[in-house]
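Hey all, quick one. A colleague (J.T.) asked me to put the farnesyl diphosphate job into the tracker so the inputs and the structure tokens live in one place instead of scattered across chat threads. No bug as far as I know, just bookkeeping. Sequence used:
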Amino acid sequence: MEKRNVTAGERDDRVPRHIAIILDGNGRWAKKRGLPRTAGHAAGSETFRKIAYYCRDIGVEYLTIYAFSTENWKRPEGEVKTIMRLLDKYLHEAIDTMERDGMKMRIFGDVSGLSPELQALAARTDEIADRIDGFQVNVCLNYGGRDEIVQAARRYAADVAAGRADGELSEAQFARYLYSANVPDPDLLIRPGGEQRLSNFLLWQCAYAEFYFTDVLWPDFTPEELDKAIAAFRSRDRRYGGVK
Ligand code: FPP
């Protein structure tokens, strides 16, 4: 797709404002090549970098990726360690490049379950992100959709008990307790890797997202594949429960 710099108040409606992606197929990609699963995650993190810059360049405003779920801790220890190492490397890079590249990063998930090093990096990226106005990448880390809703409900209940919120709860008010507060809902959800399920990802936020599934394994996903997903998105008739 054509690269463009989007300025506030002027954007191409044909490009989804917010794209969410479930990174899937890293393990199978590696197996096909006789490599350890961890090599698939390393390749997957490179693909993520390329796709993030491409999204920025074509005018997507938000990209949310599912990097590590609350259920992924069940994987073999070595695999979890590799994923955490890749995330550590990515967070260090983000800290160094976010301002230069006009690309801010946020972490969605229960950060308290991460190592102290990752927690410190997450806090540092948050500080920097506060100063940047522009394309936003949300990395879901130790994230579960149901867990997010339960944590939000707990925080809301605590606010009611402390007199900081009244008991009148609207959808918009509740959404402010989610990790995605201030982020519009995804327009397009992409799942590579051949499976067709949500796997506890952005359960609240995907209420009206268009879904796009492809058999392409995540490390093989290219900007051209993203263009195909966007073309499919454009052909959809979004009615939000109404009629047109
Ligand atoms: C799913 O593939 C992928 C994951 C659970 C991990 C994704 C993590 C990364 C790409 C690394 C870190 C991310 C960043 C942003 C630097 P799978 O292992 O379930 O694949 P399979 O279904 O083929 O086994």
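Adding what we noticed when we looked at it: The two ends are 28 Å apart (CA to CA). The chain is about 40% helix and 15% strand.
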